Description:
The protein is α+β, with helices and mostly antiparallel strands. Helices cover 20% and strands 41% of the residues. It folds into 4 domains: 2-26 and 38-211, Porin (Beta Barrel); 221-310, Immunoglobulins (Immunoglobulin-like, Sandwich), CATH 2.60.40.10; 317-399, Immunoglobulins (Immunoglobulin-like), CATH 2.60.40; 409-596, CATH 3.30.1330.60. It has helices at residues 2-28, 409-417, 441-460, 478-498, 519-528, 534-542, 544-551, 577-581, 586-596; strands at residues 46-56, 60-61, 64-65, 72-80, 85-95, 111-122, 128-143, 146-163, 171-186, 194-211, 221-227, 230-231, 237-244, 251-257, 261-262, 267-270, 278-292, 295-297, 301-310, 317-323, 326-327, 332-340, 347-353, 357-359, 364-368, 375-385, 390-399, 423-424, 466-470, 506-510, 554-559. Strands 1-4-5-6-7-8-9-10 form an 8-stranded antiparallel beta barrel. Strands 12, 14, 17, 18 and 19 form a 5-stranded mixed beta sheet that branches. A 4-stranded antiparallel beta sheet has the order 11-13-16-15, with no helix packed on it. The N and C termini lie far apart (167 Å). Residues 1-40 and 103-108 have low confidence and may be disordered.
Amino acid sequence: MNSRVSKYLSWVFALACVALMPIALVAQDSTKPTVKAPGDDSASKWDIFLGYSALIPNARVNGFGYNSIDYGVIGSVTRYFNKNAGLQFEGDEHILLPENRTTSTSEPGDDFSGASVGVVYRIPKGNITPFFHALIGVEQAGSYYQTDTWGPVVTLGGGFDAKTPLFNHHLSIRLIQGDYQFLHENFAADEGGSVSFNPQGRISAGLVYGIGSFTPPPPVTLACGASPAWVFPGDPVTVTATAGGLDPKLNAVYSWSGTGVTGTGTTASVATGSLAAGSYAVKVEVKEGKPGKEGLKPGQTADCSASFMVKAFEPPTLSCVASPSTINPGDKSSVTAAGVSPQNRPLTYSYSAASGTISGSGATATFDSTGAATGPIGITCNVADDKNQTATASTSVTITAPPPPGPSPEQVQLETRLALHSVFFPTDQPRIEKPNGGLLASQEGTLTTLASDFKKYLEFKPDAHLTLSGHADVRGSVKYNQALSERRVARTKQFLVEQGVPEANIDTRGLGKEEELTADQVKALVEQNPDLGAAEREKVLRNLTVIVLAQNRRVDVVLSTTGQESVRLYPFNAADSLTLLDERNLATRKKAAAKAK
């Protein structure tokens, strides 16, 4: 028996080496990346096995034992109901060839064949899957001196399958399958009678092709988010959980946790009224399982968390404006306040004014200027929300002084009569040695009228001033002309004071060669002179050079209250106008200038 077992084991070893050659060849190519096929880690639903088998009968008849049968074929079909347990149908055939018998007869040798059904249990472990089976069936046994007879058989055994990368990982190699068989046969009395093969051994190896797969369920996933992401205390927050990979045949239970969180399904709400400012997290877990007598049987679980932020209340903002912003004493102005609460909290308004009175409690108030002094009046607008947060803004109303009473008709008449005229002097007048001279009768008349009207005007405008500006023609030096223009304004002022004009109301300045009129300016004045006819104007313009000199020997007068200036029209119609034009004093003026140098 031992020699037969050794012989069979050598056959199994050779078969395993041949079967493992594809795996070794694949493993040698390390430069190629390994690609996992779909279902690589799953268990097949159907297994079809076909392989070589050897049988070692364990029985003696009439003192003779059965030969080991080294040539056999075995096959099975297994249907798995889950990744572990299944139902197996198996058949085998073993025939001892004549050349392998221990006797010299030429009759057919021993033969065994049968079919069984039973249960199988496997344990998928990566690329190696061990299995165990228990089968029951019928087995036909016979020999060259026994008629083939059917009898019951029980098979117990197991083995190992190794996956290969062939056929998309569907092909496996059954490295070994070892079985014990308990067989009983009732032969004829002359053929040995009732024989029990207890037990006989069977060793097999071959190829297994798997069909279908038990893919493990996808993992349960859970995502959650809070909306809105930030709130103010008291605002609601909703947290939503979205699960993936749930088995519709199982129950899913959600569990929520966190401050102020309530919820049982896929959504939960958060009460934020009592939460301080800061960041908060809400956690949720989903469990799936099958309901049982003692509650939900545990299954897959997943969890996630969502965060939201509670912000502190922000104070309101405020702006206010008064319309109109300028009023007369006793008038009213409307004050409008615009408050905004970032949280839309209810707002309360109040107002105050530096003077006058203001009334109103809503977004508008009324300012009454009765009793308030003229000028800008400050107004303060206040707003507060129900959380005692406040804001302040300010505006102002300007109360204008009442307009002064208009001028009396007499004042208007005086200002009209005070159409001032410039005062003209002869050449080089007044002289240094005679500073009180130089005024001709026509010019004294002009100043007398001016003094009379100005004194009456002072009754209405006591602060009014007359400004006298003296000029000289171009024929003197700068220094000489400066002194000459100062003598002219001094002489004019002296005459007005003699007429009763207060000296304090008269200002003087000598301009000398400054601000002299050009020939074009004088020509324009001549052409605008209403006292000249066309013939007279033409005659005057023929002597324009003399007129330009005479036009610059003058004193201009300006009234301070109105800013009106004296008219610079030369008095051509005055009785002494030719005296003003006289150039005979020119030589004397030049000598005096030389002597002064």
